[in-house]
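Issue 218. Parser rejects a valid record. Input:
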Amino acid sequence: MRGRADLAAIALIALSLIRIAATFTIYSATVDEPMHVSAALQLYTQHDYTYQPVNPPLPRLVFGLAPWIGGMQFDPKNTMEDQLLHVFHSNHRYKTNLVLARSGNLLFFVIAAIAVWWWARRELGANGGLVAVALFALQPVVAGYAGLVTHDISATAGVAVSLLAFARWLDVPSARHAMVFGAAFAFAVLCKFSDIGYVPAACLAMYLVRASRDAQTRGAWRHIAPSFGTALATCVVLIWAGYGFKTHWFFAGIHDLIWFDRMDFFGYAFGHIKPRGWWWYFPAAVALKSTIAALVLGLCAFFVRQTRVAGEALAAALAILAVSLTSHLDLGVRYVLPLYAPLSVAGAAAALAMFQHHRLRIAAAVLLAWHAVASIIAIPDAFPYFNEFAARRPWLYLLDSNLDWGQDILRLKRAVRAKKIDRLAVVAMGGHDYDSLGFPPTSLLSRDIPTQGWAAVSEHAYRFVGYQWLHGRPYERIGKSIRLYYIP
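Output the parser choked on:
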């Protein structure tokens, strides 16, 4: 049975990879992808790192390797605007370049999934590992963002690996395990700077939960303290190495992170637009963007007493969410994507506990089936997924990268061709070279002056910019994010 569960977990990860890869040519380039790929190409060709250093270079090096080998170009003579607009059009192979760039993120998805599996398996057995992988890999937003060139799934991988390493260090506080944790934390920091806050908070939460239940663990810090220096030294050296021993790149990124956090980014939630957002934004995003079944199972872990990992993993997820409350970048659930790693382990612990009680077995089976069905229904639009609370009209609740990230331009192109549209007024998220994509002549859709003929506006622009003259007019929805109008 153990071998079958392990094989099923491996098969589930493999099938998830196929599912993710199938979206590579469905979505057009989203808002952030040209920046990440261009930064990688700058590293490979110019050995410099000036393109948005607020994100660490490690994931970008992975994203950019295949594009660099495949001939995608970085021209240092171009302005940044031109570089971002045309990078995916290198060699006139737009879809091929999307595949080359997005395939790199599969590595981080595999790392995250294996870490979740390993953590759950060592605490809950093979069946627990299988359930944790199912909750993680079938979570639509996890699979969705894993198919795009962003740092969100790599940040998730960094947190998952770090929490696994910390759990082992807490069990056996040796110098070797301290070194492994230091390496894991360095990997997390090199994946995304948000992990600098997420990992320590989650580890502290895990320790406090274990200490509250185990008298022996309350004094574990005395055993961990002597090896803490080993963990810290390992972490610092590996981060330094990860930046090519160029500390100015790292500190430039930290400086930009602080600057970003101080800026007034306008957030959207429940029909309102506000600079610097709301403290409750990320809890609301998680509540609307996760499958309801996974949320129920994760929260049920609070009542599981016989398995220590239930409380520890749930505490780690809640600690990550608590750290996110201090952020003003209310731009999408992807910023808290790492919490799905411990939440999946907590949910697995709850599911196994429910299966041990005759009256709760059916409920556990129904919740797992509900989670799987919701995931399947979300195909291929996984990252714009909203659960049943908001699925009918999600734009009334959240926008930005939750729903409209410029991903439906290729779908718009197919609709334009099918309808034989010869001219289009359009405004959409992100920068798109409509001529290179094969659109008919296009113009910028005016916010104030009504136009005639065909018009396309993405949901984000419609809500943020305001197109009063379009209100009440019939439209066709293209993908999840674009409104296509015909104005007689």
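Fixed in the parser; the record now loads. The chain has three domains: 25-102, 105-394, 408-487.
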